[in-house]
Structures are given as structure tokens and as C-alpha cells.
Amino acid sequence: MRHNKKFNHLGRKKAHRDALLANMTIALIMRKRIFTTLAKAKALRVYAEPLINRSKEDSMANRRLVFSYLQNKEAVTELFREVAQKVAERNGGYTRILKTGNRLGDNAKMCFIELVDYNENMLKSASDAKKAGRTRRSRRKAAAPAAEAPAATEAPAAE
After folding, report:
1. What is the pLDDT of residues 12-23, one digit of tens each?
2. What are residue 151's phi and psi, to 5 degrees?
3. What's the pLDDT at 159?
């Protein structure tokens, strides 16, 4: 019976699953965005977010604990230096899953999983949407008289 065994086993034994999730977490930390299946991305989120949360407090105990999961010095260093500074004020939800459709070969659901604070395009578009909401009409009105005013002042100066 499978009572109280709620996480996705991903069709692998425990050692293989742990190695897969550790390698995917290393890739996510180093590249900030990876392309994978939806099931693996959801399993990765459950695996990686507690490690990212640990990195917010830089202590030797936390570094050793994260290293015991990842077994990669470069990824641990990147996590505690770069990623921890970006997510310092965030209380959770360090990753974002963006669905991209189905894979051609086997019709598996595919997606991007990325670190939230590293997507420059979404950060820019969110700030642009806030700014461009009300000021669009006023810019047009301000631009039209401003274009006419210098032309009027330049004509008498040329004489």
C-alpha cells in the first residue's frame, strides 16, 4: 500500500532520484533557468527551495548541510554569495515554473523552472507596466507642445 507516500518518485529508485534532483538543483543555481518536464520541475521545487532558504543565513553548519545535498563546491558558493543576496527579503517562492507546451516525441508536458529574482525580462516588464499605465496620454501632450516651442524660439534667434 502507498499510504502517506505523496511525493512523485519519477520512476526511479531513491539513490537515482536524489542524484537527479541534486544535479538539477546545481544546474538551476548555476544557470538560473533550466528546461525540463513539468513533473521533474515540481519535484525540483520541493527539493531546491529549502536549500535556498538555508542559504539566507550564512553559517558553517548551513554550508555543510547544503553541501551534503549537492556535493558541488561551486554551486554552494554561488548559492550562498549571489543567490542568497537576491532572495534575502523574500519569504518563500524562490522558483517559478513557466509551462511551454508538450514535447514532440512523447507528448510530455515541458516547462522552464527559474529563480524568480533573476528573470530580467519579467522584472522589467512588471516595472514598465506600472509606469506606462497613466502617463501615456500626458507624454503625448507634453511632447507635442515641446516640439513646437523650440521651433518657434529658433526662428527669431536666426534673424
Report:
1. 999 999 999 999
2. -65, -40
3. 47
